[in-house]
Amino acid sequence: MCQTYEQDPSQKPSRRDLLKNTPLGSGGALTTVGLPKISVSEPPATPKPENVLTPEDALTRLIQGNRRYVKGLETPDSFTTVSKALTTGQNPYACVLGCSDSRVSPELAFDENQGDLFITRVAGNFVTPEILASLEYGTAVLNAQLIMVLGHTSCGAIKAAIKAIEKDEDFPGHIQSLTSALSPAVEGAIKKSPEDLADAATRENIRLNVVKLRKATPILSKRVRDGQLKVVGGLYEIKTGHVELIEVV
Ligand SMILES: [Zn+2]
To answer: What is the per-residue pLDDT across 153-170, written as a single tens digit (0 to 9) for each?
Structure first.
């Protein structure tokens, strides 16, 4: 499967290619299962028809964008090129649940533009009720076909959560709430006695939140079951910019 994602990373897939085998490309209609009812006279906005993809093609596009980014082959569109279409609405093809870390910018890391990614960020990239609601909106209303939980190496939130558990350290203000939310991942990693606890906890945190989103009722779990949505994990390497796929099924 990875071979597919690695194909021809120097070129963005053409709009024509992206439309192949998609609901719009094959002449079908956008599905609205699980959505608030949208009348025929008011179809969902699709200012970017190339963003109507299958979940598998959405993942391929995301990873191919990251490969361009890693190689310095980004092909960003100018704001003036994309802005006119986006005044009519948005139809991002993927959602990202990322960390707030200033070194990890999803649009840059996946070589995408305005209107392509629906992004939620919180230090430690974990699901909260508000994050879940945002991802439900991004998928059920805006029709994004993919969610990626994007963790990264050298995550300060993960390091703080490890300190909180190993050294019983307290943090000021509301920061403690972050370490508390990440403690299941750290505790799960400790049980595996890893050589690198920070790496293991980062991966465990991604895995736990992927599973949580796949099982989230009533919206996300149904879309996953119906094949309308894929939820995967990614680990961004700060040093190289490379995103390693994890928890892909
Ligand atoms: Zn982080």
So the answer is: 999 999 999 999 999 989
The pLDDT tens digits for 179-199 are 999 999 999 999 999 999 999
Find the largest Cα–Cα distance for the chain: 60
Superfamily of 2-246 according to CATH: Carbonic anhydrase (3.40.1050.10)
Mark the residues whose beta carbon lies below 5 A from ion ligand 1.
99, 101, 155, 157
Q: How far is the CA of 202 from the centre of ligand 1 (A)?
A: 9
Interval between CA 2 and ligand 1 midpoint (Å):
25
Q: How far apart are CA 50 and CA 14, in angstroms?
A: 9
Distance 122 CA to ligand 1 centre (A): 8
pTM, entire model: 0.84
